[in-house]
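Q: What structure does this chain adopt?
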Amino acid sequence: MLATGLADVTTDPAALDSRGWWAVVVTYERKVTCVRFETVRPAPHPGGVWAGPGEWTSSLNEAAYIAGVERIRDAIADGDVYQANLCRVLSAELPAGAEIAGLGAKLAARHPAPYAMTIRAPGLEVASASPELYLRRDGDVVESRPIKGTARTAGDLLPKDHAENVMIVDLVRNDLGRVAKVGSVSVPQLCELEEHPGLVHLVSSVRARLAGGGWPELLAATFPPGSVTGAPRSSALTLLEELEPVPRGPYCGAIGWVDADSRRGALAVGIRSFWAEDGLLRFGTGAGITWGSDPRREWRETELKAARLLEVASGDGAGQDLAERAAGRP
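A:
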């Protein structure tokens, strides 16, 4: 679908219950941008000029990331958290003239994803290839499909991956239970295997019927998404603020659309996403840390998740290098 004719921009999520078709981006730090467009129609992804960015740098290097994993394991041993999702943000200089639509077109062609979206609006440029559904709403029915557990192949998944998924499913059930009709929260799918380019995920589904309220109440009850924070969420957020040196921005936030007229919408978790900011192209990657985590394996998981996307964006073999390191090859 192609949305054109920018009509309104607001930071108030209550607009999503008003009228019209909205593109939505909520950063991990809770900055809300809702953009209403006049026309939405089926169309191919628009093209645009794209040139690979400069050299990538990471907000956490391997040593710092491993130290962060150990700090989370200490917090688990102390009973402060059960798990936490430690993330790092990669940045590279954006060449003059590069257009986010061009990157979005490359992602659509080479890394298709079920919740992909490209948005260009005043002060906001995001190209996402997210595989994860944060919230889908159809009238009073709402669904979330958290991803926890990632490996190169199904045979590489560990018991730790299943434990991660079940813990986050419990968190999402509790979140939706705050705004759902009593007894309506269900788990139609638990730890199902999904294959994506270069890796596999464990995915579950949590569904509920809303007792009332609209998008502001739904976001307040469930944000930030449990799969990219941890459990208990409040303790995990405090710990992650200590360990992560830069804001996540749209990464790990919400990216999607809402049709207020039909009371339908779908917001993805803002993973596998690029955004342009202050002359830089940014991209986030992370891993869920539990007591059973091996610190170096978790670092390699962040490389595995980034590899194919960086290869698409850079076109210079950078992603292949990451993939080889993630596989344990020199």
